[in-house]
Write a structure and sequence with these properties.
The protein has 430 residues and is α/β, with parallel strands linked by helices. Among the domains are: 118 residues, no CATH class; 78 residues, no CATH class. The protein contains 17 helices and 12 strands. The strands form 4 sheets. The protein has a 5-stranded mixed β-sheet. Strands 5-12-9 form a 3-stranded mixed β-sheet. A two-stranded antiparallel ribbon has the order 6-7. It starts with 7 loop residues before the first helix and ends with a helix. 39% of the residues are buried. Bound molecules: 2-acetamido-2-deoxy-beta-D-glucopyranose (NAG) (3 copies). The site of one 2-acetamido-2-deoxy-beta-D-glucopyranose has 5 residues, from helix 2.
């Protein structure tokens, strides 16, 4: 008998207890590893599937995203078919009715209503969305970037049709973290008010929440190329820096900041006066309207006296959106900025803010002039409006967003991109 007489029952009990906890441990760890698989299953209903009502479901998005020529050609043919165009249009009134029951709307449109990961929950983003038409495009964009921990300010152009305003207002009313800007302006192409629209949203976003880490501005024809988690990870890797185009201004553009411009008949026109030098002799840099900046940059824009002076100075220039953010990005003391020295210049291709394809930069790989492959959609004012054939290349870029997409002209590009992103967002949880 190897059990000592005294207390063998106790030892047996201990032995059973050890066995029991071992069994519990195995069970728990099985539950833990099994959790990832269950996780996907659990949120399976958030995947955009082909049973969804859309007429564009005849397209094979995986083939399109792999760049298969036949499938892309077929998608292109479909998008120019009148019947298809008609069947995919959604009138503004649809959204007014559909959002009467918000929870039904969010469920049917498969909005993500809980943070998908702790990492995303701990890194909320602030978005400014400046739109003037195409409610359908706006809603698909919002759905693609929506997460409950983020915050969204929407500026609808003052001159937009009432139906656009009402429909977008109805959509935003369904979400506690999506709101209409408190002050609306009439946005004039290349005019100051384009900047003012973003400034008004910046102030509201800064005022409404103290927790967001980065600010991103969008227009209605942008679409993400990354999931929210990928965006968060890209921003964290900036380590507090900002990412936007900011480089030397070309000679051709200099007249924009050397002459006084005013709105005449709804257009920006020079009035024959030259401008004073910039306040504090700040060097003017060239960029674009789209930026990815940290909270401190926004605080500077709202509070820094030098920037207030620069803003006043910029109000009668041509297209101030294309130099103001770029100039602020090179001002000493602005959080996340870089020095004005040209060694810190950043092009739109190196910044992650926005992928825009300009017609004159398109060409074949290896050509010294070309920056990107030819546009597979069509051009509007020399900018590529992406087609399904652009997707494979787009998804390989490091940019967080691309411009332009148009739900009326090429819905397949949006349809396949949103499907790809949603699937990725749900599978990257594993
Ligand atoms: C879609 O395309 C992929 C890639 O070519 C192919 O593997 C798949 O079978 C296609 N699906 C359908 C439903 O045709
Ligand atoms: C309005 O929306 C409800 C569901 O929210 C739907 O059942 C109804 O058919 C819609 N009416 C119109 C006119 O679209
Ligand atoms: C928010 O904005 C309002 C109006 O501009 C201002 O009066 C208020 O002080 C701001 N609140 C904060 C917390 O900044």
């Amino acid at each position: 008998m190897w059990f000592p007489k005294r207390g063998w029952r106790l030892q047996l009990l201990q032995f059973i207890a050890v066995l029991g906890s071992l069994w519990m441990f195995i069970l728990l760890s099985q539950l833990k590893t099994g959790r990832s698989a269950a996780y996907i299953l659990k949120y399976q209903w958030l995947v955009y599937t082909d049973e969804d009502e859309s007429p564009e479901k005849v397209c094979n998005c995986s083939a399109i995203l792999q760049g298969e020529k036949d499938e892309i050609q077929q998608a292109k043919l479909l998008t120019i078919t009148k019947d298809f165009q008609k069947s995919t249009q959604i009138p503004d009134e649809y959204y007014i009715n559909a959002t009467k029951d918000c929870s039904e709307f969010k469920m049917r449109r498969k909005y993500i209503t809980f943070p998908l990961s702790k990492e995303e929950e701990d890194f909320p983003l602030a978005y400014s969305m400046v739109v003037h038409h195409k409610v359908h495009s706006f809603e698909r964009l919002l759905r693609a970037i929506y997460a409950p921990q983020n915050i969204y300010c929407v500026h609808v152009d003052k001159k937009a049709p009432a139906s656009v305003f009402i429909a977008i207002n109805a959509i935003t009313s369904c979400f506690p973290n999506v709101f209409m800007v408190s002050k609306t302006v009439d946005v004039v192409y290349a005019g100051w008010t384009r900047v003012q629209a973003d400034l008004n949203c910046m102030a509201d976003l800064y005022n409404t929440s103290t927790t967001w880490k980065y600010f991103i501005n969008l227009c209605g024809q942008d679409f993400p190329l990354k999931t929210n988690l990928e965006i968060v990870q890209a921003l964290r890797s900036l380590k507090g820096g900002n990412s936007l185009e900011s480089e030397e201004m070309s000679q051709g553009k200099k007249k924009r900041v050397m002459n006084v411009y005013q709105v005449v008949d709804g257009k920006m026109q020079p009035i024959g006066k030259t401008k004073d030098p910039t306040p504090f002799n700040l060097p003017i840099l060239s960029g674009n309207a789209y930026i990815v900046v940290n909270r401190g940059y926004i605080r500077s824009v709202l509070e820094d006296k030098r920037i207030q002076a620069l803003i006043e100075w910029a109000k009668d220039t041509y297209s101030p959106d294309e130099f103001l953010w770029a100039t602020i990005q090179r001002m000493p003391g602005v959080p996340g900025s870089t020095w004005p020295n040209s060694k810190f210049d950043m092009t739109d291709m190196n910044a992650i803010a926005r992928m825009v394809k300009w017609q004159w930069h398109e060409g074949s790989e290896g050509s010294l002039q070309a920056v990107y492959p030819e546009c597979k959609g069509h051009h509007v004012r020399s900018i590529c409006v992406y087609g399904a054939g652009d997707l494979q290349w787009l998804t390989e870029q490091h940019h967080l967003f691309a411009n332009k997409f148009d739900a009326d002209r090429d819905l397949i590009a949006i349809y396949c991109l949103e499907k790809y992103l949603r699937y990725k967002a749900l599978t990257e949880l594993v």
